[in-house]
Amino acid sequence: MQDNTVAIQLKGITKTFGEVVANKNVDLTVYRGEVLSILGENGSGKTTLMNMIAGIYYPDSGEIFIDGEKASIHSPKDAFSYRIGMIHQHFKLVDVFSAADNIILGEEYKGFDVKVEAENIRAAHTFENAAYEAYNPEEHTGVLAYLKAPKYHSEKETKRKIAALPFIKIAKRIKFGWLSRNRADALQSIANRYGFEIDLKKKIYDMSVSEKQTVEIIKVLYRNADILILDEPTAVLTPQEIDKLFAVLRRMRDDGKSIIIITHKLNEVMAISDRVAVLRKGEHIATVNTADTNEKELTEMMVGKKIDLNINRTEPHDVEDRLVVENISATNHDGVKVLDNVSFTARSGEILGIAGIAGSGQRELLEAIAGLQKLNGGDIWYFDPAKDNEKIDLRAKTPVQIRDLGVRLSFVPEDRLGMGLVGNMDLVDNMLLRSYRNVRHTEAETKCEGDAAEENCIPASCEETTDVGNAARENPNIKSNKAKDAFAKFGKGVANCVSVLWSSVFLDRKSPKNLAENIVTELEVVTPSTRTPVRRLSGGNVQKVLVGREIAAAPTVLMAAYPVRGLDINSSYTIYNLLNEQKEQGVAVIFVGEDLDVLIDLCDRIMVVCGGKISGIVDGRTARKEELGTLMTNYSGLKAAPDSVTEG
Amino acid sequence: MFWTFLQRAIRFSTVFMFGATGETITEKSGHLNLGIPGVMCIGAVGGVLGESLYLKSLSDISQINGFAAVIIPIIMTLIFGALAGLLFSFFTVTLRCNQNVTGLTITTFGIGFNSFYMNRIDKTGFTAASEYFIKGFPCADSAGWFGQIFLSYGTLVYLAIIIAVIAAIVIKRTRVGLNLRAVGENPATADAAGISVTKYRYIATILGSAIAGLGGLFFIMDHLGGNIEYNIDAFGWMAVALVIFTVWKPNWGILGSILFGALYISPDFMTVPSAATKEIVKLIPYFVTVVVLIVTSIINKRETQPPAALGVSYFREER
Amino acid sequence: MTNVLKKLKLESPIHISKRTDMPKWKSWLIRGGAIVAALLLCGIISSILSSGSFSSFMEQMFKGCFSTPRRAINLFEETALLLCISLAVTPAFKMKFWNIGAEGQVLMGALLCATCMKYFGGKVDDGLLIVIMLVFSIVGGAVWSTIPAIFKAKWNTNETLFTLMMNYIAMGLIACVIAIWVPNNSGTVGVLSYGNFPKIGRYPYILNIIIVAILTVLVFIYLRFSKHGYELSVVGESVNTAKYIGINVKKVIVRTMILSGALCGIAGWLIVGGASHTVSTEVAGGRGFTAILISWLAHFDPIAMSFTAFLVAFLSQGSSQAASVLNFGGSFPKIITGMFFFIIIASEFFVGYKIKFTFGKRKAERADELNAEESDGSIGATAYDSADLGDGEPNEITARIDNSAEEIALPSENNQNAQKEEEVEA
């Protein structure tokens, strides 16, 4: 299969985004007729590297050679001209078009050069005329003589044919521009050649994810790509669909095409690839033949040696169950199961880490707890420490309902500026997001403590005081000091009422302003002022603002999704310390992370998710990186019961 | 009676047909040009200006050449309409302004420009010139109802239908149309496929505006017979309504325009219509448009939805 | 042809990038400059058209607005009406709901107001009548805006097109009602004598101006300090965030549109009860559309809006005076307003974007420069970097207006050796 001709070679590719080094001095060789897997964790720079081949990014330094010649790929179009095609995770398809139309979209008319064609005709005619002159009719007899006799082309005929060329050009142009009704049939042959079972007349919006992916692949093949890059192609597919895809890829490989698959699923690496290139933290670790390696070795290469981060971890105390999730499941719009029968318990005074490949259901899990994800089944229970651990059902509640139940749940979402904060609003207004609903507490209210909600106690206190006031007005003969008292009380009551009413209609920016100022000073947020739109802050400062706000809500459960993504070392440690502080204060912290070193050093327990299921829960103090890596990519052995792998 | 009605309906539908075809082409590219009433006004000014210049260049009105009297205004209208479209695209694509705001500004300006200019123009000879616009095929009268329905119209009526048919074919059956639709549906994908979103949006808007402008010219030169002091902006909004009514399909736009045209002229054919009935009939097009808009959004069938990127400007860096 | 275009594009020295760092005073300076430029341009054009002098045009502009108290009052009344409708559309726009239907909502308010005047006039006390008119106007405007809002919230019906159509249905309804009221085809209702607003002092319209002034303050407070105002701006900024903090987006859409329509209804009430005392399809006079432009240009800030509304009213009244003196006809103000808006809209570009002119760059360098910028993560149409690297620095994004430049970009060995580069900040 592999014929040892180099298809594409990368030499010393380096790419940085700001201060983050995405790829560092990467060398890589891809041969014709092979399937190469690019293996690595999230953020190891796989996609960035491939984007540089596909013309999305341009390397800061280093060289790319295609078929032995130095290439410079500035755009996807350049990549096409080098016969490179990339299938991205997010499909680029027009929904209302049929598959066939998507495939031919943007195809350019391949020029028909009149001069070149004229030369061709002339050459062909000269050749045939020469043959005519050299032809000896006696060599053949009968019908054969007639058939084999070359024709003579007069000068006039040549001229006539050449004169017709401009018109042929126009006709070709029109024919190219015209979309015939059976354009899908013409494309079907490509599809059939590789064994795709797809109806190209079908509209994209009617298609399943795997069909859409097939369209993307055909699109790339249609452009005559010899090098195909697939970015996590199996992430959205069912096992059966994966098998089909692999069959197609093998057929293409046998056809002499080079196929690069970005993945982090080891079983698939073993199943499909001829060679594996492992990337870690932007660097190329090694490229090995799949036949010469095994999953264990690859995992070790992928996760690397354990690095001690010196994150302070205290022993949990006063541990009690705070949040119990039982058998929850959810599907996304495509009907793919994103959460599959997930059960776990988050305990107070503990940090529960969630490890897993990106998109294994972490986001959906947190959103389900926060009341943002529709569930198909299962239960979420919260044990309220303020009410003697009373059991509260959180399932199918909106965020507001959860709040109203007195559940102090804080959530630092993955998408900071698109979900957690409003980029165009300043720090103070972003603080308001959490607190704007609060109704101001007044003296009268603070008296009515207890289980009753504020809303119930406000009108009561108002009514009471108003009654006293009315009584005072109606009986002017009442003793003066008593009346004074009553009036004072009445005045206070009215003031309370007004204040409550006021605060239920109007915003209170005072306390958010104080909060914002506190966060700025305590977390050392670099910002011109608290009136600066958060969009203008750097990534680390944005995150400090968001985490600071969520912690300020005095949570009993704190969920943080990738809170240190894109942050520098100092900011990251600030966040770790904040999480540890919360843990010591008895908060149940749920930390979704991608860096295994951090997870192992920070968390008390680490839950590993894989394909929407829990593949294991391990003790953070004894966990080993390889063990986590295996669980993260353990797609085959998912049937194991969740807690069977504890205490590794 | 019926044939006369149909003939008048088809004739009047030309105003909407030009506007709707132009606006459909524009909207297919993802530009919601709310300046279409203004564009029609500006286009009409161009045509009238051209006619007036041509008539002035003659020493005597009797020397008028029918072909020139028609073609010069048409060309001038196309130029003025295209300029208005260029203005719109320049603001929305190059200067990245909001499409609604730009469109409404063009409408304000166009209406003002139209009535300002129309008041000041020299109208001598316009009635004679408009004869050439109105004139149908010579054999129309002798061919009975057939002649009346198919042969009796002026140049612009046929032009409108031809343009609408061509637009429908180009949008549906050519690569250019495919690319155009892709730009309006999903500019990011089109961009990734190597289609220049900027180029397509500019060209579609300019072309659409040029075509829409002809609607204004028809109304003044053909329908009103050269009487130029009349507001035409209401027809611009009707054209926008038509685009929705015909779910962004120029071929349906032909039938839709005729329907709207029939509604518009139907009070003239009623025996003693009350003023209120007249007004209700005028209101029907907008009402059915709203109904179509609601029904299509409830059914939510993808083919009948507005282009997905309609009204959304596309700049790469914001993706 | 295309090749020539491509070459031109590539060598185009203009290079546009987004900016977020412009200080407020500078942006307002640019806008102020644009206003002055617009005024000058309008003056110059009309002096060319009239072959009169520039100063005489300006003189007429001011004369038309301030020469008599009556004119001044008219000016402020017009400002008030424009402002009132601008205030009405603002909450919807802040929520990114394109309510183009202000005209229709005002008309419905006006229609119901006039209906009250016609049928209750003389039967109830004038003071009470005015209140009834107000209630009906608010209901009229609110109903007209709520219908599209409900469909938007429920089925995501395109609100721009829907509200636009509602304008013409409102006009048709008015024409219809007038035809019923006045069957003799004259098409005008005539002055309705009951329920006219009382005069305060010697001049009419004072009450209108006071009411709008109060409304401005109220809307300002609503948007800036109230919880509802806060919610709607969160919905406008990011629906995801709104959901995250538990805002019921559909409820906010409908509630805001009711408010928007109600304010339009009030505008209708002010027009019919306080100014025209009659109703016709022209009673809103395109103010619904102008108000949209005013609101947008003022960045949805009620204070800036009052200035903008005043400017527009001034331009339109002043230029109509100038037009009548110079014999330009009644539509001249529309041209002036249109040109004014064009220039102001264009000026927003210079506030929002940085323009860099580069001279003397060779093709290769230019290409490399483009790539250097790409490395900031600016290449469009992709979200890859966020997947693998988290959010970088979104504010340093540099943009290219030219979509196809990269396809012709060529490699170059000599990296970005400094060439003449001039940065002209517009």
Blueprint of the fold:
The complex is a heterotrimer of chains A (648), B (319) and C (426).
Chain A: E1 6-17, E2 20-31, E3 35-39, H1 46-53, E4 61-66, E5 69-71, H2 76-81, E6 84-87, H3 99-104, H4 114-134, H5 142-148, H6 155-177, H7 183-193, H8 209-222, E7 227-231, H9 239-254, E8 258-263, H10 266-272, E9 275-280, E10 283-289, H11 295-303, E11 321-331, E12 337-347, E13 350-355, H12 362-370, E14 377-384, E15 390-393, H13 399-404, E16 409-412, H14 416-420, H15 427-435, H16 443-447, H17 454-474, H18 480-505, H19 510-522, H20 539-552, E17 557-561, H21 569-584, E18 588-592, H22 596-602, E19 605-610, E20 613-619, H23 625-632
Parallel strand pairs in A: 3-8, 3-9, 6-7, 7-8, 13-18, 13-19, 16-17, 17-18
Antiparallel strand pairs in A: 1-2, 1-4, 4-5, 9-10, 11-12, 11-14, 14-15, 19-20
Helix pairs in contact in A: 4-6, 11-23, 15-19, 15-20, 17-18, 19-20, 20-21
Chain B: H1 2-28, H2 36-57, H3 66-94, H4 99-120, H5 126-134, H6 144-151, H7 155-173, H8 175-185, H9 187-192, H10 197-223, H11 233-245, H12 250-265, H13 275-299
Chain C: H1 2-11, E1 14-18, H2 24-50, H3 54-66, H4 69-94, H5 102-120, H6 126-155, H7 159-181, H8 206-225, H9 227-237, H10 239-244, H11 249-276, H12 287-297, H13 302-326, H14 332-352, E2 353-357, H15 363-378, H16 384-389
Helix pairs in contact in C: 2-3, 2-14, 3-13, 4-8, 4-9, 4-11, 4-12, 4-13, 5-6, 5-7, 5-11, 5-12, 6-7, 6-11, 8-9, 9-11, 12-13, 13-14
Describe this entry's structure for a reader:
The complex is a heterotrimer of chains A (648), B (319) and C (426). Helix content of chain A is 41%, strand content 21%. With 648 residues, chain A is α/β, with parallel strands linked by helices. Chain A folds into four domains: 6-96 and 208-303, 3-Layer(aba) Sandwich (Rossmann fold); 103-202, no CATH class; 320-408 and 555-568 and 585-648, Rossmann fold; 443-505. A six-stranded mixed beta sheet of chain A has the order 6-7-8-3-9-10, sandwiched between helices. A six-stranded mixed beta sheet of chain A has the order 16-17-18-13-19-20, with helices on both faces. Chain A has a four-stranded antiparallel beta sheet with strand order 2-1-4-5, covered by helices on one side. In chain A, strand 11 (321-331) and strand 12 (337-347) form a beta hairpin. The longest helix of chain A is centred in the last third of the chain and has 26 residues, at 480-505. The two termini of chain A are 42 Å apart. Chain B is mainly α and 319 residues long. Chain B has one domain (2-318): Orthogonal Bundle (ABC transporter involved in vitamin B12 uptake, BtuC). Chain C folds into two domains: 2-20 and 354-408, no CATH class; 67-311, ABC transporter involved in vitamin B12 uptake, BtuC. Helix content of chain C is 69%, strand content 2%. Chain C is built from 16 helices and two strands. In chain C, helix 5 (102-120) packs across helix 11 (249-276). The longest helix of chain C has 30 residues, at 126-155. Chain C starts with a helix and ends in a 37-residue tail after the last helix. Classes of the chains: A alpha/beta (648), B mainly alpha (319), C mainly alpha (426). Chains in contact: A-B, A-C, B-C. At the B-C interface, helix 3, helix 4, helix 9, helix 10 and helix 11 of B face helix 7, helix 12 and helix 14 of C.
